[in-house]
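Supplementary notes for students who missed Thursday's class. We covered one full example, reproduced here. Read the sequence, then the structure, then the short commentary at the end.
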Amino acid sequence: METKQSTDTIMMIRPVRFRMNEQTAVNNYYQKVLDGLTADQVQEKALAEFDDFVAKLRLKGVNVIVVDDTVDPDTPDSIFPNNWISFHDDGRIGLYPMFAENRRLERRSDIIEKLRDQFSVSALVDFTEFESSNVFLEGTGSMILDRPNKIVYAAMSERTQEQPLDEFCEAFGYEAVKFVANQDVDGKRLPIYHTNVMMCVADEFAILCVDSIDDQNERKAVIDKLEGTGKEVISISEDQKHHFAGNMLQVRSKDDELYLVMSGVAYQSLNKDQINKIEKYCPIIHSSLDTIEALGGGSARCMMAEVFLPKK
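Structure (token representation):
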């Protein structure tokens, strides 16, 4: 069976008590405090953004499996499931070690059981034991997978570490392209917490914040690998990256139409030339995620866990 880069089925977690997660804010420099909103107002806004986003995806023929979050335990970031789980076309599921202790509570066996009703699950590959030694790899936030070419792009950081990455590559048969991606924080260049805020790999193109890779050799290695696998590299600026223009995902409809999914803020940050380059390959779906982005420090791609499991 041919491995595809994009899937027509994604899983999303509908929030019940969304808020800013103080445990992730220590190294997620995208999170902002929104003053003047009550907890109920934050949840209401996040829920409206979530539901609108799901409706737009479904309208284009994308199969969205929505799972409701639970009130207990308290998981303010449950809306970003791509960090704790990944689904693969050989029927395997990956489970990942998470930096924030309260994010570890997002891992739910009932979600896996629910998916078993529709999909064939052959095995769970569990990397979570790394948490006991404070070593982390946060799923497809940490790793950008080029699935057909079996390449994983990983910006190394506190949340994306070498040992679990190497174990993932060994277990799933991937080659790792490792590099450091930085951003300006209070006059210093500090590592970006997740690779998926600075790059996106689609079937025939890649979005890349080239300027965030300070080391020229690493920068060249990433571009060479992308171009060597036949992808056009569409560069975004550091400012655009800060508007979540790297946090995109290509999905397909049940009719096999491809789309690139992003937030409204990300779309508005792009220039005409970038939009034309993307639309040469596929149309864009964008949706307003302002509250989720500000408080969660994550965007459209983080909200979608791609389901590649074989259908029953």
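Commentary. The longest strand covers residues 9-14. Confidence is low (pLDDT under 50) at residues 23-32. If anything here is unclear, bring it to office hours.
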